[in-house]
Design a protein that fits this description.
four-stranded antiparallel sheet, 5 helices, alpha+beta
Length: about 190
């Protein structure tokens, strides 16, 4: 019985005597040094080409990651700017036309008119903003609109990132602007 005829299914034991009788069969399937290098190895050119391919794939993946990060930060800061612009609109609309028509006599400290002011959280426990809100400045303006039967006030709020801030770098827009009109109630 030779070694090449023995399989794992037969579960036969080979004794030392049988191995000594036919030593030429022991090394019949072992590859030589030349066969290993010639058929199973990689050349230096193949390795360099595969490394170049892997590098190009990694550059592409990193570019996609950078663009996704920029898009998500832009969306976050734009959402925050919209919220900061919407807040004074909601407050002024809640007070109504009569209160707004005399706004200069009882102006709110957080909403001065026609000047750019940094958005800050109230220290006395009033309005609280996320920490990133301090990267923005806000300008509120009121304009009286009169047509013959109806009187109204146009509220315009602009929110822009402060100079030299993270929001200025990430935000793709220069500013966010929102408007609303508050009309006089019919009498």
């Amino acid at each position: 019985m030779t070694i090449s005829n023995v399989t794992s299914k037969q579960h036969q034991a080979i004794t030392e005597n049988e191995l000594m009788k036919q030593p030429q069969n022991l090394f019949r399937n072992v590859p030589t040094k030349n066969k290993v290098l010639g058929k199973n190895g990689f050349s230096m050119v193949e390795i360099l080409i595969s490394l170049l391919f892997i590098a190009l794939v990694m550059v592409g993946i990193s570019n996609v990651n950078i663009m996704a990060n920029k898009s998500s930060m832009d969306a976050y800061y734009e959402f925050l700017a919209v919220q900061l612009a919407q807040e004074p609109l909601e407050i002024f609309r809640a007070f109504g036309y009569d209160w707004l028509s005399n706004y200069q006599s009882h102006a709110l400290a957080d909403y001065p008119l026609d000047t750019w002011n940094q958005v800050l959280s109230s220290k006395a426990g009033g309005i609280q903003y996320p920490q990133e809100a301090e990267l923005f400045q806000r300008k509120v303006s009121l304009k009286s609109i009169s047509t013959s039967p109806v009187k109204a006030i146009r509220i315009k709020v602009q929110v822009a990132p402060r100079d030299m801030s993270r929001a200025k770098i990430w935000l793709s827009q220069s500013d966010v602007s929102m408007e609303a009109i508050v009309c006089e109630r019919p009498k």
